[in-house]
């Protein structure tokens, strides 16, 4: 079952959530040092990880699953009456993404795979929308990690995985695993002092106890040679529901 988008937003607005997002973003940037001129998509609740891409990608958009709900992104800031560039987030069915075939160069999936009841359909949709040579990056809870044992963060909800399980799932859905790393190597502390320690000790944790990290980050590339035969019939893709029309109001 998906977490509600309001709960996800609240976590990422908290001190712990801000540090967690920064540590995961650092690993994503290591894997993808540039997305210059590319088409970038965030699936699930990926918006905390998309901002660094907006300045260099050709386009950066987000899709949130219907069961989770959607909020406007980018959000209003301060006293500004509008967001930067308008709304870039939509609500859609995870089994029928409102995107053209081979239209995305990079896809970031966060807080979606571990909740989905339609994992195969979801990953096949990812394959369909990726351009040849395109790459997807999954951020999922680590089943051996500290964070999956606590429901106080989004990484303690849904089905946690091992790297081997994710690699197998990707391979079975025509996506070749290429790289894997992790983040959040210390437990999800609540005090501000310990949250600072979490950030300071991340590099040490990566070196000595990365198997217990809270999040796994796995990259895969589209296999264009493993597509099903030509008997598949294309389905009509529904129009996305923009967050600006059916967003949860932020008061």
What would you note in describing this structure?
The protein is an alpha/beta fold and 251 residues long. The chain has 8 helices and 8 strands. Strand 1, helix 3 (51-54) and strand 2 (59-65) form a beta-alpha-beta unit. It is globular.
User: What is Rg?
Assistant: 18 Å
Percent of residues in helices: 25-40%
Estimate what percentage of residues fall within beta strands.
15-25%
Largest sheet: 8 strands, mixed
| Morphology call | globular
Kindly report how far apart the N and C termini lie.
Answer: 26 Å
Total DSSP E strands: 8
Give the integer mean of the pLDDT values: 88
Order of helices and strands: HHEHEEEHEHEHHEEH
Number of helices: 8
Helix/strand-derived category reads alpha/beta
Q: Ranges with pLDDT <50 over ≥5 residues? A: 78-83, 229-239, 244-251
Query: What strand line-up does the widest sheet have?
Result: 6-7-5-4-1-2-3-8
What characteristics describe this protein?
alpha/beta, single chain, eight-stranded mixed β-sheet, 8 helices, disordered C terminus, globular, 251 residues, 8 strands
Provide a concise account of the structure shown.
This protein is of the alpha/beta class. Helix content is 28%, strand content 22%.
């Amino acid at each position: 079952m998906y977490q509600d988008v309001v709960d996800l937003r609240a976590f990422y607005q908290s001190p712990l959530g801000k540090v967690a997002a920064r540590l995961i973003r650092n690993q994503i940037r290591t894997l993808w040092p540039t997305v210059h001129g590319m088409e970038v998509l965030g699936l699930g609740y990926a918006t905390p990880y998309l901002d660094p891409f907006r300045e260099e990608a050709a386009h950066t958009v987000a899709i949130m699953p219907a069961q989770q709900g959607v909020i406007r992104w980018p959000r209003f800031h301060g006293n500004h009456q509008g967001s930067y560039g308008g709304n870039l987030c939509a609500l859609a069915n995870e089994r029928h993404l409102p995107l053209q075939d081979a239209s995305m160069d990079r896809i970031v999936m966060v807080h979606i795979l571990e909740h989905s009841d339609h994992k195969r359909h979801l990953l096949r949709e990812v394959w369909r929308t990726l351009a040849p040579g395109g790459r997807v990056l999954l951020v999922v809870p680590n089943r051996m990690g500290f964070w999956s044992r606590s429901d106080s963060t989004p990484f303690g909800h849904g089905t946690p995985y091992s790297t081997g399980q994710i690699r197998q799932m990707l391979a079975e859905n025509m996506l070749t695993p290429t790289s894997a790393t992790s983040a959040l190597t210390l437990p999800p502390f609540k005090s501000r002092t310990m949250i600072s320690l979490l950030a300071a000790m991340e590099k040490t944790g990566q070196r000595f106890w990365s198997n217990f990290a809270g999040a796994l980050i796995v990259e895969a590339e589209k296999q264009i040679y493993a597509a099903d035969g030509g008997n598949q019939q294309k389905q009509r893709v529904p129009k996305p529901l923009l967050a600006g029309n059916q967003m949860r109001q932020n008061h």
